[in-house]
């Protein structure tokens, strides 16, 4: 399969703290409506968190929910919604040629923490350790639960790429479609992170856990008084196809995956490297055959940590400069940091911009940090750009993994770029 094979997005399924469909999610982003609650975290008390509220029993029996995982339920919900949205003849499709590629930050911590806590109530007697533990905690679990629920017999696996994983899931799908390994893919990212106290404790001890008297204002990327990450759960999976196949079945096309890049900082486990981030962006642009000025919208990864936001802004400044032609926004200000799902969910929130030309803002910026004062930054109110043809989606993670995905507008009759 040639590298020139064009790959398109034909369906979207998601659950976010402030929406369980693309329409609801997008409407809340444009209306400036976040949804961050307070969660009782074991050993730590109440903490701001992004909590999803979707109808898991729409696609799973209660026993399946009990025996499986929260990440699996999120993935199943998103996958089923994406398939329905795509309009594909799911009963008629060859399931052996469907691939499932799900990005994750981590998996298994929730289940292991719960089991250790459970047996501590019984003198640490391992007879009280569930026999469901092993299938719940293997890293491929969320993708595997999708295959069992939907009857997919093609390849499945998760992509462990820290908080760059949402993009990585989509990139993996595009690569497999180009190679001819599959003919249809379900891809994106999921996270159940709020259910593990370890991730809260870890960020708190790093001085990177957000706090605010109003949880809906706790996630404040670019604000001078930002103080850390709001941990959230969520998911977004897409149906991905080769353009020729999507056109053959008359599918609606949300956008075309133009290019991508994944690289590594190789400098620090936690602190981002702006030079490597800028390099990742430039490589993706080169592969897409685009100049920086050709990008109409950049979704930032910015998590509202004091240093992390500044480092990304330095990378963006180095690539896009001061022209202001490229608009820049952030989605975590509404939903917190959905970890492995972040990149995929944030792309979903911006994807409708290709159709309507409107850019949702970053909210909760009461006093802009001068070190984050980028030209083109959209703050606190939507911006009608008139035209959005290209979205560049940043998603970065610990251990210095950087991912950039570029999605472009598709016009029927378009014969090539």
Question: Could you outline the blueprint of secondary structure elements for this entry?
Answer:
Elements: E1 7-15, H1 22-30, E2 37-41, E3 45-50, H2 62-67, H3 70-86, E4 98-104, H4 109-120, H5 133-137, H6 141-150, E5 156-160, H7 165-179, E6 184-191, H8 197-205, E7 231-232, E8 234-242, H9 243-248, E9 255-264, H10 274-288, E10 297-299, H11 306-320, E11 327-329, H12 332-335, H13 342-350, H14 353-356, E12 358-359, E13 383-384, E14 390-397, E15 401-408
Structural write-up:
This protein is of the alpha/beta class. It has two domains: 8-248, Peroxisomal Thiolase, Chain A, domain 1 (3-Layer(aba) Sandwich); 259-408, Peroxisomal Thiolase, Chain A, domain 1 (3-Layer(aba) Sandwich), CATH 3.40.47. It is 33% helix and 21% strand. The protein has 14 helices and 15 strands. It has helices at 22-30, 62-67, 70-86, 109-120, 133-137, 141-150, 165-179, 197-205, 243-248, 274-288, 306-320, 332-335, 342-350, 353-356, and strands at residues 7-15, 37-41, 45-50, 98-104, 156-160, 184-191, 231-232, 234-242, 255-264, 297-299, 327-329, 358-359, 383-384, 390-397, 401-408. The strands form three sheets. A ten-stranded mixed β-sheet has the order 5-4-6-8-1-9-15-14-10-11, with helices on both faces. A three-stranded mixed β-sheet has the order 2-3-7. Strands 12-13 form a two-stranded antiparallel ribbon. α3 (70-86) crosses α6 (141-150), α7 crosses α13 and α10 packs across α11. The two termini are 18 Å apart.
């Amino acid at each position: 399969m040639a590298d020139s094979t064009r790959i398109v997005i034909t369906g979207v399924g998601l659950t976010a703290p402030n929406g369980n469909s693309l329409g609801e999610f997008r409407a809340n982003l444009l209306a400036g409506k976040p949804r961050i609650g307070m969660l009782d975290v074991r050993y730590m008390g109440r903490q701001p968190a992004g909590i999803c509220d979707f109808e898991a029993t729409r696609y799973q029996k209660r026993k399946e929910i009990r025996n499986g995982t929260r990440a699996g339920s999120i993935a199943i919900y998103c996958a089923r919604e994406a398939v329905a949205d795509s309009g594909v003849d799911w009963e008629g499709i060859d399931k052996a040629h469907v691939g499932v590629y799900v990005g994750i930050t981590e998996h298994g911590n929730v289940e292991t923490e719960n089991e250790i806590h459970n047996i501590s109530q019984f003198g640490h007697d391992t007879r009280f350790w569930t026999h469901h533990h092993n299938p719940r905690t293997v890293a491929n679990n969320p993708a595997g639960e999708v295959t069992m629920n939907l009857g997919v017999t093609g390849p499945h696996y998760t992509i462990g790429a820290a908080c760059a994983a949402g993009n990585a899931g989509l990139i993996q799908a595009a690569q497999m479609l180009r190679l001819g390994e599959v003919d249809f893919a379900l891809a994106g990212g999921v996270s159940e992170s709020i259910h593990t106290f370890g991730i809260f404790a870890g960020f708190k001890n790093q001085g990177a856990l957000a706090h605010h008297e109003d949880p809906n204002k706790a996630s404040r990327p670019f604000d001078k008084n930002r103080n850390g990450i709001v941990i959230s759960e969520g998911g977004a999976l897409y149906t991905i196809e080769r353009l020729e196949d999507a056109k053959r079945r008359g599918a609606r096309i949300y956008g075309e995956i133009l290019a991508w890049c994944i690289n590594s900082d190789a400098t620090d486990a936690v602190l981002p490297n702006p030079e490597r981030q800028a390099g990742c962006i430039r490589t993706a642009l080169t592969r897409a055959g685009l100049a920086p000025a050709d990008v109409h919208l950049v979704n930032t990864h910015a998590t509202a940590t004091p240093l992390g936001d500044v480092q990304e802004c330095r990378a963006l400044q180095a690539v896009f400069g001061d022209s202001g032609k490229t608009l820049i926004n952030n989605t975590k200000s509404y939903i917190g940091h959905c970890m492995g799902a972040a990149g995929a969910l944030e792309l979903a929130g911006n994807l409708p911009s290709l159709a309507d030309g409107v850019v949702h803002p970053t909210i909760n910026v009461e006093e802009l940090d001068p070190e984050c004062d980028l030209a083109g930054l959209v703050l606190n109110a939507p911006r009608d750009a008139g035209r959005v043809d290209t979205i560049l989606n940043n998603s970065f993670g610990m251990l210095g993994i950087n991912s950039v995905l570029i999605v472009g507008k598709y016009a029927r009759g378009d014969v090539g770029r």
